[in-house]
Amino acid sequence: MGSGTRRRRRWAALLGTAALAVTAGGAFACPANADPQQVDFATHCVPPPIAGIPPIDGTTTAKITVDDAAPKVGDTVTVTYTVVKPAASNPVDIALPADIMTPTGKVTLGGAQSGDLTVAGPKKNDPVPGKGAFPSFSMTGTFTVTAPGSITLSPGDYNIHTSYLLELDTPCTVSTPPAPVSETITATGGGQTNNRAISLGTASGKPGDSVTVTGSNFAPGAAVTLAGRAGAAETADKATVTANAQGSFSGSLAVSDKATTGVVAYEGSAWSDDKGAGPAAYVVIDDTPLPAGSQKVNSSVKAGTLSMTQAGDTVELAAVDYGKGGFSRGSLQTVTVKDFRGGPAGWSLTGKVTDFSGPAGAKIDAAKLGWTPVCLTKTGSPSTCQAGSPGAVGSAGATLASTPNGTLTGGEFTVDARLSLNVPAFTPPGAYSGVLTLTLT
């Protein structure tokens, strides 16, 4: 799977044998993630001219969350910008019904990686009384980690678009940018890095409007395709630009497809994780008048995450006799994988084990642990789970299960394995245990 779509969850389970081992309490390990910090910042909001009221200088309360606070270079991080309390309110006396607000905005990156990330939210809100306060709303976007170290995320400018009777915008800018840091992630070095990046001149527009796309770190002189995205699929909206000698470009893309949710840029004529950037969030605001007596019904499907859970954290293997040895057998605690990302990437679940430590420094080599994987796919899942090959696990590791890349992937999967520890005949009696670490990418 491409580096831009990887997600990591690391879990550990203690393994032992019933007669040879007294198992310690197991635990799983995953990256620490502090609670997001809610911040306040001064904001200048400009009501639409029809309201006939002056700009509003107030305070916005916001917070930023991420789906991975400890990514590797090359990983894609999903960012959610939540405006808890907007500085602006409904500028008119007319009450606004539910689900007519479309928010867009930017998140400012700092530290090891700099730039602005565009974010957009669904058309979803509670009813707003005339001159009443706007409700809280959330916007999401993604960026690819290009450098190791601490990366700060601060809330930026945002715009509230309302579609009721009239199409109106209330842009709100940070009075003294950047706003306070709301979240910090720590990136570690990864494999080959794709440093290509794009930013958009605006995060929304009407059907047919053009958006300015600015790119950096592309191959000098490369032909770059700009394209609209509707989830994991490309739309018919495309344009071509040429990167300059420094690998940068600025081009224009006309976006007509109302289903577009983002914009990507890539070298050549077909998308590649290694030679592409984005998607940058973009919302097409449909202002097509409805026929008399009609009601427009909107809905959305929200992308989720790749995650895993396990039924327990300790495995008890059967006893073997001193002098005879043989296979100490048992079953892996059942692992459930849920892939709700809704993109083109598959996943891989691998495992590796430490040596089994026993009394007085005695050990059983990690290569002595083998498994026979089994993987079941829940009915209706777009992807089909493939079990790994039977064999040794060892300290180098082996694949437990996986799903392939595809046009649209996802689903729920149950992963099990029969475990067998080949204990040498005259292994000293006593307790032996090792740690099996499962990694989902």
Automatic annotation (TrEMBL):
<feature type="signal peptide">
    <location>
        <begin position="1"/>
        <end position="29"/>
    </location>
</feature>
<protein>
    <submittedName>
        <fullName>Beta-xylosidase</fullName>
    </submittedName>
</protein>
<keyword id="KW-0732">Signal</keyword>
